[in-house]
Design brief:
The complex is a heterodimer of chains A (414) and B (294). Chain A is of the alpha/beta class and 414 residues long. In chain A, 44% of the residues lie in helices and 19% in strands. In chain A, helix 2 runs parallel beside helix 12 and helix 3 runs parallel beside helix 4. Chains A and B meet through strand 7, helix 7, helix 8 and helix 9 of A and helix 1, helix 4, helix 9 and helix 10 of B.
Chain lengths: 414, 294
């Protein structure tokens, strides 16, 4: 490179910030008063129905109901597809936070992606409101002052469904586990419950994720172990295929119990009551639970695809509503300046909304509320569209989640 | 109890049988691909979406018209096959003179569009479809309980494979087809409508995919990505068997089903990968595939 061209380039580089700054100023003044929410989830794969566009829809309702725009604060909602891949998820998160001025990332199902985004958000001191992912490590070994884990986690599922199965006499278990962070965490947490209750885990098999469609081979292995309960530590299409094929192989008719550890209401819809009846599931939200949840579902209206909201989508609503309350309380500037401070403010305020009722956020980032044990209705018990669950037990908020002292999170301990 | 490599023998037999059943799906799907590639020289990446459409049409026939499984087995291949004919006439036929890559890209794009449209309309978590009443229940084979439906799938798949092979290798129409692949201009000169034959061949290959889709509907979740999950494996099967070889794709389909089934016992984590390891080894040693002509 010649001296002249180098100098020209250096000169251009030196003036660039000035050129850049001029048209920027007015935009920046407006940006200072704007909260940007990024909804990051699966828009095109197997978790689309439980999160996907329905989560964005729920977030928009939260923005509208928070009344924050009436106070002169702008809120923008953007969404992106992480394709269930940690590399895609963290790239989008980085781009949003570094370049596009996003303040808070919401939803992020798929535990491996959630753990990657958790780190990215923490490094940049923004806010991560996770609703979709299950791994209890988000408030355990990998807890972060910038993260709130809202809706459910592997401990809640293990405690609910796992606990109920053991109490009903299912003391020997075999796990069919999706081979990634979520499946491992769910198997670990459920095994812990089974052992604590005096039961035994006879074995487990790890199934490739994604890409497994036929589970019959694994189901036959599980049956050969002579375990009384087959624990399905998987989700979405994997769970649907497992349950469908277990029925086909007549496992349940021969006295083996299936524990669908993570079953969403949309999965039951997809299976049909004939196949799904009798399954015991744990959820923290069901649209037909009480007057408040029904009112919420009605206000939410038709979700994309005509489905009823899942607990993940309800969680996105509830988390954003609470976050915006905190923003209104502390002011936009302070909330944008430090994600950790915004999360601290959220922790200091009690949460209350129609989807989850009253709740609180613990220092480790765990949102606590009651969890519900449901049994899937038989076809003749169902009275209408989406009437799928009957409540069999309510697990109070203080027992639904792992005690903070056992998680291994250092935040909040002095 | 007798053990083979530390695995109880009955369990191993069961796994072999299950591998064979999965192999039936691989064989049926790769058969359609092999027919289309062998006769038309088109790498049909829409095959997964057409398999999925077969299952969705079966669901739609039941939900909207009350037509059950047996009707679906007949009608879904016809309906999806007709879609294939339309696709061939309007788009694919324009690419015959170009490199394979163009056909591959076109069909890949169409596959993504179809999948996206279905996802938009029906969501991603899938729709319920039950095993027909006549085929419910299971047989006790001593070493495992074998659902009657799975036995039916294997029998039907073998019959379909055999019938396709017979049509192409032993009938007059088959000989026209093979001749047209070698030298279309000459066959056309004898007064045979080669473009029509190509169109119908594509339609038949697509109908095979839809047929497999209907067979799959009662046992797999009927969702938009059901084809995408299978199609990559099926492509590996076709490559291992030798592109365009009908016998190759059928034998490899069943064989790889068994290899995959055994991997699920000895090293489950690797069961999604093992087929690609086999593919790499075959490509290194026999680039034209096991049954392909170099």
């Amino acid at each position: 490179m010649t001296e002249t061209t180098r100098r020209t380039l250096l000169g251009a580089a030196a003036t660039a910030p000035v050129w850049g700054a001029l048209p920027y100023r007015s935009a920046r003044a407006q940006a200072a008063n704007t909260i940007r929410i990024g909804v990051l989830n699966d828009q095109s794969g197997l978790y689309r129905d439980i999160s996907g566009p329905g989560s964005t829809h729920a977030v928009r309702l939260a923005v509208q109901e928070s009344g924050i725009t009436q106070r002169g604060i702008n809120v923008e909602v953007v969404q992106a597809d992480h394709q269930n891949r940690p590399d895609v998820g963290s790239t989008v998160a980085r781009q949003w936070l570094d370049r596009d001025g996003v303040d808070v990332i919401v939803d992020v199902p798929t535990s491996s992606v959630a753990l990657a985004v958790n780190t990215v958000v923490r490094e940049r001191n923004k806010v991560f409101l996770n609703s979709g992912a299950a791994t209890s490590d988000l408030t355990g070994a990998q807890c972060s002052p910038n993260t709130v884990h809202w809706t459910y986690d592997t401990y809640m599922l293990a405690n609910g469904t796992g606990g109920a199965m053991v109490r009903a006499g299912g003391d020997t278990w075999f796990f069919i586990t999706a081979d990634y962070a979520f499946g491992h965490a769910l198997e670990r947490d459920t095994s812990e419950f089974v052992r604590r209750a005096g039961g035994r885990v006879l074995g487990s098999v790890r199934t490739p994720f994604p890409g497994t469609t036929d589970f019959s081979s694994f189901l036959v292995q599980a049956q050969a172990s002579r375990a009384k309960v087959i624990g399905l530590a998987n989700a979405g299409g994997d769970t649907i295929n497992s349950i469908k094929q277990a029925a086909e192989f007549g496992l349940t008719r021969r006295g083996v119990k299936l524990a669908g550890l993570l079953v969403f209401v949309t999965d039951v819809h997809s299976l049909g009551l004939q196949t799904a009846q009798g399954l015991v599931v744990t959820e923290s939200f069901y649209w037909d639970l009480n007057d408040r949840t029904r009112a919420f579902t009605q206000r939410l209206g038709q979700t994309p695809g005509g489905l009823r909201p899942s607990m993940v989508q309800a969680g996105c609503y509830s988390a954003v509503l609470h976050y915006l309350k905190a923003v209104g309380d502390m002011g936009v500037a302070a909330a944008k300046a430090s994600g950790a401070e915004a999360v601290n403010r959220m922790k200091a305020m009690p949460a209350n909304d129609d989807a989850f009722g009253q709740g609180t956020i613990r220092p480790d980032g765990r949102k606590v509320h009651p969890a519900y044990l449901f049994e899937v209705k038989a076809p003749n018990e169902s009275r209408g569209a989406w009437d799928y669950y009957k409540l069999i037990a309510t697990i109070p908020a203080d027992q639904a989640f792992r005690p903070a002292a056992e998680g291994g999170c250092a935040i909040g301990r002095s | 109890m007798d053990e083979i490599f530390g695995i109880p023998a009955p369990l191993l037999f069961g796994q072999l049988l299950l591998g064979l059943i999965n192999g039936a799906f691989y064989a049926l799907l790769s058969l359609g691909l092999a027919v289309i590639f062998g006769m038309l020289n088109v790498i049909n990446f829409t095959h997964g979406a057409q398999f999925m459409l077969g299952a969705f049409v079966a669901w739609a026939l039941l939900s909207f018209l009350g037509l059950g499984y047996w009707w679906a087995l007949l009608l879904a291949p016809l309906i999806v096959g007709a879609f294939g004919v339309l696709l061939e006439r309007t788009m694919i036929s324009r690419l015959y003179k170009l490199d394979h890559l163009y056909g591959l890209l076109l069909t890949f794009g169409v596959g993504l569009i179809v999948e996206g449209l279905v996802r938009n309309e029906f969501g991603s978590s899938g729709l319920p479809y039950r095993i027909p009443a006549e085929l419910q229940g299971s047989w006790d084979l001593g070493f495992m309980f074998m659902p009657i439906y799975r036995g039916w799938v294997v029998v039907v798949a073998i019959v379909a494979c055999l019938a396709t092979w017979l049509v192409i290798e032993k009938t007059k129409i088959g000989s026209y087809l093979r001749a047209a692949t070698e030298n279309p201009a000459l066959v056309q000169a004898f007064g045979i409508n080669v473009p029509l034959m190509m169109t119908l061949t594509y339609g038949a290959g697509v109908a095979l995919a839809a047929f497999a889709g209907v067979l799959a509907a009662p046992i797999y979740s009927v969702n938009p990505q059901m084809g995408a999950n299978l199609i990559i494996i099926v492509f590996a099967v076709v490559v291992i068997g030798g592109m365009g070889s009908i016998l190759g794709s059928v034998v490899t389909g069943f064989g790889l089903g068994i290899i995959e089934g055994l991997t699920k016992v000895f090293w489950p984590e690797a069961s999604a990968t093992v087929i690609f390891v086999v593919m790499a080894i075959v490509l290194l040693t026999r680039p034209a595939g096991l049954f392909g002509r170099a």
